Amino acid sequence: MARESWQSRIGFTMAAAGSAVGLINIWRFPYVVGAYGGGAFILVYLMCLVLIGLPVFLAEVVLGRTAASNPAGTFRKLGGNRAWAATGKGIVITGFLVSSFYSAIAGWILGYLYEIATSGLSQFGSCAAAAACFAQWTGSTGWTLSFHALFLLICAAILLLGVKRGIEWGNKFLMPLLFVLLIFICIKGLMLPGASKGLAFLFTPDWSVLTPTSIIIALGHSFFTLSLGQGTMITYGGYLSRKDSIPLGCVPVLAFDTLISLLAGIAVFTVVFSVGLEPSSGPSLMFNSLPLVFSSIPGGHLVALLFFFLVVIAAITSEISVLEPVVAYFMDEKKWSRRKAVTICALAAFAFGIPSALSTNLMRDATWMGLTFFDLVSSFTTNLLIPLGGLAAVLLAGWRWGFHRFWAHLEEGTAHMATRYHWLKPYFWVGVKVTAPLLILLVLIANLLS
Ligand code: PHE
């Protein structure tokens, strides 16, 4: 009995870690750190994780496990009125928006994998050459569109076939492999001349560079990387048995996710500072820097292939987890078959993702307030909708539903957690009822005013 529940908690942790670890850790984390304040940004981000991310994470999983439904169903059941039901639907829409632009970016990675597999690494002799490749490939309409389509096709096929084993295998074996490979790339990066400047940038906070924008970006990023605020963890919580401890299932996910981001940061910034790249050069940062490490290693071609392959797998396990709540919504609420729901959701994500895929080429100059379509959708969801989704979850758990119920459900499966650690209940009370909602609200208001 005990062993069975242990196994299923590990299953949850693996699935949640597969969802959490993805492009946001490896591709986005380094470039937002580079653009929004280096070490000081990282500290704010870590504070957001502990003070806000963890309570929101637990709230979502508790709500999901209790209602065992899609996000809209969960909010309707536990919120008990129309406003909460509508909020749940809004969360499903956020998930859909994320799935569309996430796939456009994942298409870049898939495209890189294809290019490296077919034409070798010779183009990546220097960072300038790597940057030229990035600009050339993402500048091609056919290239970005076809890999966006191919990526969604792969995800839809997996969602359709429901190859649970395959996904589990990916999460169980390939994620640890990604971890080991990242450590190896970091070591290689640390051996480059001037690498210590990269470490200093990452780990010596300079508070003077921090702006209100940095704080909202750190908050949005901490939610995005943990797959919060858009229904994924609510849906995954529904698969967790009442015999399992939610805190023990969630804390390792947070730790692993953070570790992968920090490693990606070290891998990228040792190169950036070694060759004098601009840390704030934006979404191309990883693509312009890491190739230098690959071309400096004997057998670098294989390492690069393996790296991009693992990042594609990480992106697939994440994309599936963003689409699943949307699919579950149509299956539960509209009684669609899985096949119909997956086909329509994937087609819609493809269609809505087209302008994002074209934002580096055909629609590069079509801007609103200086932002391309991709920038607009990604910043609107990451910096506004996702934090709002997280806020709704803690408000529902801590206030509408009530802390005593939240606590009773959280305690289920934890075996005397609260009697052993007396400080846990007050910590969660403050976290779920006060700090998380208050800080999210404050950051959102400060951002609106700035
Ligand atoms: N957390 C994933 C990543 O880091 C992205 C994601 C967001 C996945 C939301 C699911 C839901 O790449």
If you compute it from the alpha carbons, what radius of gyration comes out, rounded to the nearest whole angstrom?
21 Å
Mean pLDDT: 91
Number of helices: 19
Indicate the overall shape: globular
- Give the amount of beta strand, in percent: under 5%
| Total strand segments | 0
Order of helices and strands: HHHHHHHHHHHHHHHHHHH
Instruction: Tell me the span between the first and last alpha carbons.
Output: 55 Å
Please state the structural category. mainly alpha
Unreliable stretches (pLDDT < 50, length at least 5) are 1-6
Main sheet attributes: strand count, strand direction, barrel closure? none
- Identify every distinct bound molecule in the structure, by name, code or SMILES: phenylalanine
Helical content band: over 70%
What does this structure look like?
With 450 residues, this protein is an all-alpha fold. 80% of the residues lie in helices and 0% in strands. It is built from 19 helices and no strands. The protein starts with a helix and ends with a helix. Mean pLDDT is 91; it is low at 1-6.
Characteristics:
0% strand, disordered N terminus, 19 helices, mainly alpha, 450 residues, globular, binds phenylalanine
Quick overview of this protein structure:
Helices cover 80% and strands 0% of the residues. It has 450 residues and is mostly helical. The structure holds phenylalanine.
